[in-house]
User: What shape does this take?
Amino acid sequence: MDQTKTIVFIHGLWMHASSWQQWMEFFNNQGYKTINPGWPGDSSTVAECRSNSQSIANRGVEEIVENYAKIIRTLPEPPIVIGHSFGGLIAQILLSRGLASACIAIDPAPMKGVWQLPFSAIKASFPVIGNPFNVSKANSLTYKQFRYGFANAVSEKEAKELYELWTIPAPCRPLFQAATASFSGIQTKVNTQNTNRGPLLITGGEKDNQAPAIIGKASVKKYNKKVITDFKLFEGRGHSLIVDSGWKEIAEYSLNWLKKQGL
Assistant: This one.
């Protein structure tokens, strides 16, 4: 009987699914199977996404979650899900619905009920949510916005390289849904009281402006303590931590955490 575990990688806003390629190679070499489906409307390459930005416009959280749920249901057993940023929120929703065996949410977006929204997160999101007419559109980050929201903890040279390599247009609707998560945001609701779910690791980056660590810490507090719910702070790290030159630190910590869970 095949005991190989499958990991489903879930990207966040403004990053292409192929940004997980180093992680996939790393976990493949550790004996896991890996897949990295895109969001509905994503094209297969960064260049295609940039040239066809409106194909992903007006996609909400529930549509994105269902896209991954449909893929997961084709697998022989519930996979491990690893998500970054908005992908971390989506991964938590999938775990809470019993569709995953374990979840690692790396610097996730806020779920419903998490009201902590530091100034840096508001500033990073304001170019989108500052204009309500953006809700049904797709938006691309300028380099200046990417530098502040994602790549503030790396050199200027590396920040520019990451921007050119991985950034794509993203639907604005999920950002509006997260911004109202504390008082409405039914689409961003996570069933934190499900005691039948698998183990969960949430991480935060000390210098993350887009999804500050306080969001992850507040999310952990929402969960039922009867099930493993861990938090890890990565010192000196920003929101680009899964793709920048220090990505392997996070990948190795994630691997060791999964091993501790018997996965």
Remarks:
- The radius of gyration is 17 Å.
- The chain has one domain: 6-260.
